Amino acid sequence: MRLSIENCADLALKSYAAAKALKRGRPAQGVVAHMDRRGAQAMMLDHKVLLIPGSNELVDWMRNVNVYNILGKRYKAKASAKSKTGAVLHSGFNSHANLIGKFAKEHDAQFVIGHSLGAATAQILGSWLGVPAVGFASPRVKLGARRVKNESKILNICRLDDLVTHVPPSEIGFRRLGKTVQLIAPETNPGLDHSMPNYIAALDFDTLGDALPRTWG
What we know:
Elements: E1 3-4, H1 5-23, E2 31-37, E3 40-45, E4 49-52, E5 62-64, E6 67-70, E7 73-76, E8 80-82, E9 88-90, H2 91-106, E10 111-115, H3 117-129, E11 133-136, E12 142-143, E13 154-159, E14 174-175, E15 179-184, H4 196-202, E16 206-208, E17 215-216
Parallel strand pairs: 4-10, 10-11, 11-13, 13-15
Antiparallel strand pairs: 1-17, 2-3, 3-4, 5-6, 6-7, 8-9, 12-14, 15-16
């Protein structure tokens, strides 16, 4: 499966409205299955695309650059755990991915899209499942430079002015899985740069290094 980056961004944006509708017991267009467990949300679309909304507000899960609230627990930036594949991941992101991974396998996910906390899990599931994954506003999830399986299938799209993309700190050894394209904003919007609407607006910005591909998969 191959999707345009614009389509991926549009689905990531719509995942928030879909999650709200499902919480209220209303249907969401194109969603054939969904989960909402212990604060982890995910939706499966009718063409086996898994959507993982994250958070548009930094304070929803990131209290500061050193402490993150994930699944109701507080994790320090340096917290790490060995994943089921043997890779050392941030323990909070690993827990989130474990929870959503069961749902992804049950519904045979063939493509994963996430934003923010959802982008952290999109990276991990892309590696675990060996399927294409696109993350917007992706934090760093892996401790250590050693590459793991299926990293070539993972794309991260990050604004340089987005604080979330700089945590956990690279200075303590964390990095993103796969390829990262960094977007250079001509203007910043303090407190709002992390939102999906501002990521969609940034898709035509210049990049630092590699250009943004038009499609992924």
